[in-house]
Amino acid sequence: MHPYIILGTAILAEVIGTTALKLSQGFSRPLPSLGVLVGYGTAFYLLSLALEDLPVGVVYGTWAALGIVAIASIGVVAFDEPVDLAGLVGLALIVAGVYCLNVVSGMSAH
After folding, report:
1. Predicted model pTM
2. Could you state, in order of their start, the residue ranges of all structural domains in the chain?
3. Are 97 and 71 spatial neighbours (Cβ–Cβ below 8 Å)?
4. Is 9 exposed, middle or buried, given 0-12, 13-18 or 19+ CB atoms closer than 10 A?
5. DSSP string for 41-80
6. Residue 38: exposure state from Cβ atoms within 10 A (0-12, 13-18, ≥19)
7. Which helix (H) or strand (E) holds 95?
8. pLDDT tens per residue across span 22-50
9. How far apart are CA 7 and CA 26, in angstroms?
């Protein structure tokens, strides 16, 4: 399987785990707590597979950045968390950084 598909799936699993963490209310709710364990366990396993083919800086930079953007978006939409212009600019800069790291830079495996 293509390493970027594996990385994308790892990011999705991490986002699911983090959303479940918010819903677990300090691990006091069993089903979301199980979602945390499954989400993070799957995410780290897939991350380890992506690291077999991609440089660690690219993998971790992409993982962290896209996870931040996804979780911030979920926070705004699902949990009514506030967002302002500075936050949107910051998120746009994160996306621009991922683009530079993966497309423009020579660091990634083109």
Report:
1. 0.91
2. 3-104
3. no
4. middle
5. HHHHHHHHHHTTTS-HHHHHHHHHHHHHHHHHHHHHHHS-
6. middle
7. helix 85-99
8. 999 999 999 999 999 999 999 999 999 99
9. 28
